[in-house]
Every structure is written in structure tokens, then in C-alpha cells.
Amino acid sequence: MTSTDLPLPTYKPKDFASDQDVRWCPGCGDYAVLAAVRKTLPKLGRHKEDFVFVSGIGCAARFPYYMETYGLHSIHGRAPAFATGIKLANPDLDVWIVSGDGDLLSIGGNHTIHVMRRNVGVRIILLNNRIYGLTKGQYSPTSERGKVTKSTPMGSIDEPVNPLALALAAECTFVARCIDVDAKMLVPTMERAAGHEGCAFIEVYQDCNIFNHQAWFYASQKDTRPNNTVDLVNGEPLIFGENRDKGVMIVNGRPRAVTLGSGGVTEKDLLVHDETDRTLAFTLANMRSPELPEPLGVLYCNPDRPAYEQESREQIRQAEEARPDTKLAALVAGPDTWTVG
Amino acid sequence: MTSQAPEAPSSTSPTPVEAVAVRFAGDSGDGMQLAGGQFTSTTAVLGNDFSTFPDYPAEIRAPRGTTFGVSGFQVHFAARPIHTPGDAVDVLVAMNPAAFKTNIDEVRPGGMIIADEDEFSGVGLKKAGYAPDDKPLADEVLSSRYRIVTVPMTRIVREALAETGQSAKEIDRCRNMFALGLLCWMYDRPLTPTIDWLDSYFGKKKKRPEIASMNVTALKAGWAFGETTEAIPERYQVAAAELPPGLYRKINGNEATVLGLAVASAKADTQISYCGYPITPASDLLHGLSALKQFGIQTFQAEDEIAAVAAAIGVSYAGGIGVTGTSGPGLALKGEALGLAVMLELPLVVVDVQRAGPATGMPTKTEQADLLQAMYGRSGEAPCVVLAAASPSDCFDTAIEAVRLAVRAMCPVIVLTDAGIANGAEPWQVPDVASIPEIKIEHPVAQADSDDTFEPYLRDPETLARRWAIPGTPGLEHRLGGLEKDGTTGAVTYDGPNHQTMIAARAEKVARVVDVIPPMEVGGDAGADTLVVGWGGTRGAIISATERLQQEGIATAMVHLRHINPMPPNLGEVLARYTNIIVPEINSGQLAMLLRANYLVDAKTVSVIQGRGFHVEELVNGIRKVIEEAGR
Fold first, then answer.
1. Contact B453 A19 (CB under 8 A)
2. Looking at the structure, do residues B205 and B318 belong to the same domain, yes or no?
3. CATH number of residue B268's parent domain
């Protein structure tokens, strides 16, 4: 049902730009992510017509309109369910969900959980700006406690949700985090997500420069990022800091930030990243600045679980194979008939 | 085990009767649905016309013996065509005091009650709310009104199965077969179909031949009880009805919907993906279709009603036929997504098996109160095609038509059925599948060497449907969404005049479905002053009522709507011919409101909203009353 047998054109990022004017606010982090996605798609070896971008509602959800691919701008929170239907009908399509923290974690929290636990083969890009932008600045499910917004003049009393921990708890098989302006990490992470058989989830720290400017600056800027984040490399120890002299080590079962050389700590003592270890992934997902560096890159990847849509197809194939002679007329007549006249 | 049934010769020769309604009533765990279903199957084989009414509580296993745990199964069978499960019951089988108490009012005066006397003591009476010294079976008033036959069912079954070594619980579960055997004796029905079924179900499928054998013993004990005692002095015979010749099967509405969708998928040569969330009384659609994978049917049990409709829309976007099914509360949840489907202009079929509402209401009981929700229950102006199945077997044709119209008009089609026809069964002349027309689906492809951009909202001049371009098609990349679109390019626009044009186009597109709707045929006495207008699952009761009114000398014509939106092309002209327009509905007058609004006619409502189908008698009285009032 896709055109894989046709020769693959050589695409450039601009081939994925639709004729629509991009209407995000100047300076919005979404521009960087849009550019990174357009940069990623030509690398994937897929035909343009095989991509489908699906979104819910919100600023981020305008994303499909700006991609010269198939796209579905759906209703608030339900993008994962629409995407599931698309994959069920045609598993060969490359389906991407791009939406925001309000859309995917608040009104659509339920669908986000279930698309993950089913392992539907979609790539989810969560543009997390910790605020409601389109409705002009109310607090979101990822806003920090005490956040003062139009709807929380005395500060939010809601505990924010941790998107990575939620994804892991929902049995998501690929969990990663990136920063909007860091195309160097974002592009290869999206490439890996695209190659993942099941459900791939990337949380993107995205700046809303109008309603929640600088929310991620503690982690996203040249001078803040080294000390407040750690780039995960599979099989490598967790080392961070502007001089790469800090690390994360497990002490009494808990992660702790340490300085290399201090108290005899060496690289060998540090926690080594293993992206197949789900328990470790939970530990990483719960590392928060300033106590610990926040992890960036791929926290968890389990490539072995089959995708939901493939298993659905497989059951149909098995049933068809087991009963190849099935006749529609016999089905309609059923096992018990009688004749009149 | 011998499968030879002790059927004939019998000491008493049966008296012929024209039509009988029997109701099996007992505890939810007493197997009443099974006994009633088997009695119906046997009746079908004998060539009677029939109509059934399973009446069960929402509680899966309410406390044993309580009145709210009573489950009933009514079957009306006749030597002539019949259209309803019957108003009043001729024979009630009451397996316990609670069943006796809750069902006795359903029995016609002079009717028979066969009760398991062993249950009418101590705890059984107490649980049903009787006083310890109450003797309902010996009640003088009741005994003068009904023929109460007491049978020691529990004791006989226990004695008959004493040597099996099975627990009392397993043995007592065979009481339903005893009751069935007794009724089969009484109405001269063979035991063989039931014995075959027991062997096949318990013996082969469940690998419990000992259970099959126990049930057969109980069944035969019931027959023998009728034969050897004189507890029931008479036997009856209901001859075969004169139905059109052909091959028949028994079918209920949910089964028919499932088959209709399977056939539609084959006729459209396109996979149907049924996306549902369990809800009474629609869950059997999900169950039925999930067992049809060998026909290429895909099913998806979503996390909620909204996800179910959203996934179905996703399926249609990707080129499959997205179908979702639900009941009233679920339809409410799907409202926003239905609005989106209207905006996207994608085919979608939504089956609403209506139940008594609002909110959770009475989930197992029937109602027709979702009509206006189906018409208007969305934000903005979001017209959908609305169809309503008229009987259990009509669900088959309606489901096929829904798929046909959804792909024709590129819009959602809502199919209204109801708990009554979804669970009720009737004989159905098996259709010739080969003669059902194909459903034509076309997906556009890009013209070679053309640089033209695909315009997703260009419309077919005849149907006004837009083209169904699907992902994976080179050169037709486009974006759909809930924001208003330019009428040709499909680009997002907030242009006022374009919005009005698009609203009109979406409405006109649905209205033009009328081009493929056949004109209505007027039934009954077409020259009468009174026209009874019905819709959906009440057709059988309305036919019976108008027939009876004719017999009483009150001339009535009738039409029955399967097409609610748009309505049939000649409906306005038909309505204009009659002085009295009477609309019986299991709601407070929703169709009447539409008829008044659309055709400026003084439609009067007859409504009975009690969680069940119309009784013919109350319909006759209701219609007569409206006619009399109009005549004053």
C-alpha cells in the first residue's frame, strides 16, 4: 500500500516544506524542531508520500500543515488514537505524532498511555514548553508547582507530570529526550526513532518565548547545559560538566552527582548507561536539576517487542491461513438453517 | 448417550393453536436465556414465525433469588406471520418466587404459570420479599385469574441425576433443561435439536460430555413429567407459518449488523476495521466481528469511546473502512470526533445500539431516544446521514447501506438500532450474497507529468463528495484537519464567505443522498385519513397495531422510516395526503418534532418509554385515542 517499489528520489529538507506560511510566534522553539524534522526525513530512505504527520490541538499541533507530506490535524488530545487507526489500516506508513504537553499529557493523557503500552509503531514528538500557548498562558501538566499564570494567580498547586517516567511506566519501548535548539542531538535521535519498530517517544524541551520564556534555559544554553544535563551514550559512563569532570554514580542504591578525582572517585565508579535496562531508565528519568544532571538522548530502547499493527495483521493472516475456504454465503447462512416450501 | 428423544407417540393428542407467547423466567444464573434460545431454535425448525425478547438485568450475577436478579426470555411463535414478541404471555415458567413475583403481571388472564414449587419456601420466599408464611402459588386471587401448575422441578432433577455423583450445584443447573423439556412436550416440539446442541456445546466444545449427558437427562425428565403426570392436562400444536419459500435462519439484530458489515467489506473489496469500546448492548458487535478475522475483518478494542471513533477515522483516512459501534452514552462521547469526520469529509460508520437513558439509564433496556442526538449532537452544523434499522434482520441491509452511503457521500453515517432488535431474534430468509451489488470505491492517483497541486476539497458535481486520496499515493500529499478549509485548495482559511459555502456544501452533500433513497410505500389502508409514521425497531409493533385497527374498522395507513437523514424523497407528499399523522415512538416525540419542522404537519405523538418495545394493545389504544380526539 505504499510506493516502496518506486525509485527513491533524493530529497532535500525544503522538499518537505508545504506552501503554508508558518504562523508560530517569531522566536518560538517549534521552528527549530520543524527544521530538524525536515532535515531528518530525507535521511530515512522513505518516499515522501509514505509520511503522515498527526497532531491534536495547540500551537505545536499546527505542525502537519507545514509539512509537505500527508497530515491530519485532529482534535484535542486524540492524535495517538487517530494515528493508531492509520497504522492499523496501513502499517507501512511512517506515522509521526507532533503535539504539545497540554495536548498529549492533559486532555490526551489517556491515549498517550495506551498508544505506548500497545507499542503502536508511531514516533511521538512531545513539544514540552510547560505552558498552554494557544489559549494564552495557562499552566500546563508539566508546569512546576507554584507557577503563576492567568489561571493560577497564587501559584499552581499541581504537581507536574514527568513525561519520561510516564512513558516508561506506560511500557513505551523507545524513550528519549532532546532540546529544541540542539539539532545535533535531535536529528540523530529522530533518525533512531524512525528506525524503531514500535512506539518511539521523544520529549523535546521547547521554549515558548511568549508565555514561558526561558523555562528550559537552565538546561538549554551553552553556559547552563554542561552542568545541568548529561548526554547519554549507550555503554559509556555518565560524565558531565563543562570540564567533563563530573559524573553520576550509584551510592546506596541512589544516583548521586560526584566530581571525578574527589574522594578517589574514578570513571570506573560511574554509572554506565545501558539503554536496554528499564530499571536504569526509571532512575535516569527521575534525575532532576539541580541535584542531578537531567539526561538527554536515548534513555531506553527495547527493539524486540513487535509493533501492535504488525501483530494485528498477523492475527488476520493466521486466521485467513487456518480457514482459507471460508465462504461469505456460508457465514451469512450460519450453521443452523431450515427450508420453507 | 442415546440421542433418541421420547417424542412420540404421546398419550394426549395436541390441540391446534394459532399463536403462543412463552416466557422463561428465573434467576440470572438459572440459564433462562439458554432455555429460551433453544426453545426458539426448535420452533424455527418447525417452521413457525417467531419473535423473541430477551429481558435481562444489567447485574451479571445479582444476589441469587432476588427480584432484581431475574432474567427472562420471551418467545412468541405462531402459525401465521407475527411482528412482535407478544404483549401478554400465555405461559410463564417461573423458576423461583422472584421470577414469579416480577413476571406475573405479564401473563394474560387465564394464562398458565408453571412454577418450581421446591423453590417456594423459606429463603426463596424471603429473598423475593414474601413473608415466611406467604403461599403465592396457593393465593386465591391469583389462582382464580391464572392456571398455576406447580412442579417439583428441583426434586425431580436431583433424583434423576443423583447417580451422576455431581455436586448439588451442578445438578441444580440442569433445571432449565427440565423446564425446556416440559415445554417441548406441551407444545409438541422435538428434543433432538436441543440434544444435538448440548452434545456439540458441552460435549465437544467444552469437553464436558458428563455435563451434556446430565442436561439431556434433565431435558428428557421434563418431557417425561409432562407425558406421565396429568399436571398439565393439555398439549398444544402450533403449525408452520406460511412464510415465503426459501432457506431461513434465526437472527438477532447485533448478529445481522455484524454480517452486514462483513458483507459490505467484501462488496467494497476493502478491509473494515471495527474500533469499539465495550458497552451494553453494543458489545456483541465487537465480539462478533473479532471472530471474523478469516474474512479480513480487523477489530480494535480502544481505551475509550473517543479513541474508538478516532481510530476509526484514522482507518478511513488511510483508506480502510472505519466503523465504530456504541450506545447512547458512547455516542455522546464521540460527538466531537464526529464533527471532525464531517469536517474531514471521510467515510465513517457509527452504529448506535440505543438503550434507555439518559446517563447510564437502564443499560439492558430498549429506547429510541438518541434520534435527535444522532441528528444534532455535535458542535456547529455537522450533518450526518442517519439510518434506522426496522427489525433484527433489517440490521443486515442497513449496515450494508451505511457503508455504501458513507463512501458515496464521504461523510459519517449513523446507524440507529436498539436493544430490542439487537437482542431480539426472528426468522430471516437468508439473502443471496452474490446478488448484493458491489460497493464502488475509487481513490485518485496523480496524473503523470502533472505539476498541479492536489485539491482535496474539489467536489464531484453530482454527489458533492470530495475525492478520497489516501496516504501512500505519490503526488497527492495534502493535509486535513478540523480547521475550516478553502473550498478547493484545502488550505486553512477563516474567510467568512468560504465558511458559509462550505457549511452549505456539507449539508447539500448529505441532502443529495436522497437521490439513492427509494420512495416510501404506504402500507395498511392507503386511502385512510390517518397515517401512522414510525421509525426504527418499532416497525413490527406498528404493523400489528394498524392491522388490528383495520380489523376494528378504524382505517389507518402506515409508513416506516429507515432513512432519517435525509428522509425519503416523497415523504412530504405522502404526509400531505393525511388528516391525522400519528407518530409512535419510544421517546417523547423526537421524530414528530422533525416531521413538524421539516414538513409543517401537525404530527401527534404516541409515546411509551418504559424500557421495552411497544405492546400492540397500548399502541392500538394510543392511536385510537388520538384519532378520537382529532374527531372531536
1. yes
2. no
3. 3.40.50.970
Residue B501 lies in a domain: no
Separation of alpha carbons B536 and B526, rounded Å: 21
- Residues of chain B with Cβ-Cβ distance to A323 below 8 Å are 294
ipTM, two decimals, is 0.97
Domain assignment present for residue B46? The answer is yes
Residue B77, in any domain of the structure = yes
Q: For position A138, what pLDDT does the model report?
A: 97
Cell output for A313: 495483521
Give me the half-sphere count of Cα atoms (radius 13 Å) on the Cβ side of residue B374.
31
Q: Is residue A4's pLDDT more than 80?
A: no
Clarify whether residues B163 and B265 are in a common domain.
no
Residue count (chain A)? 341
Assess B263–A contact: CB distance below 8 Å, yes or no: yes
> How many domains, in total, are found in chain B?
3
Q: Do A18 and B479 touch (CB under 8 A)?
A: yes
Average pLDDT, chain A: 96
Q: In angstroms, rounded to a whole number, what is the distance separating the alpha carbons of residues B104 and B59? A: 21
Distance from CA of A212 to the nearest CA of B (A): 26
> Is A329 in Cβ contact with B433 (below 8 Å)?
yes
Residues of chain B with pLDDT under 70: 1-12, 448-451
| Cβ neighbour number for residue B86 with a 10 Å cutoff | 26
Do B319 and A52 make contact, defined as CB atoms within 8 angstroms?
A: no
Q: Is B21 helix (H, G, I), strand (E, B) or coil?
A: strand
Assigned domain for B514 exists: no
Residues of chain B contacting A318 with CB distance shorter than 8 Å? 293
Q: Check: CATH 3.40.50.970 for A13-215+306-315?
A: yes
C-alpha cell of residue B45? 425448525
B254: containing domain? 250-435
Q: How many CB atoms within 10 Å of residue A213?
A: 13
The per-residue pLDDT for A3 is 57
CA distance, residue B193 to nearest chain A CA (Å): 10
Residue A117 has pLDDT above 90, yes or no: yes
pLDDT at residue B8, as a whole number: 46
pLDDT for the residue A122: 98
Q: What is the rounded distance in angstroms from the CA atom of residue B231 to the CA atom of residue B490?
A: 77
Question: Across the A/B interface, how many CB contacts are shorter than 8 Å?
Answer: 223
CB contacts under 8 A, B 311-340 vs A, are 311-320, 322, 336-337, 340
| Model pLDDT, residue B50 | 96
Identify whether residues B58 and B165 lie together within a single domain.
yes
Interface test with A, best of B189, B275, B299, B303 (most A CBs within 10 A): B303
**Final residue of a structural domain among B374, B406, B435:** B435
Residues B533 and B403 in one domain: no
With a CB-CB cutoff of 8 Å, which residues 50-89 of chain A face chain B? 50-52, 54, 57, 64-65, 67-76, 78, 80-89
Nearest alpha-carbon partner for A202 in A182, A175, A181, A239: A175
pLDDT single digits (tens) A223-246: 999 999 999 999 999 999 999 999
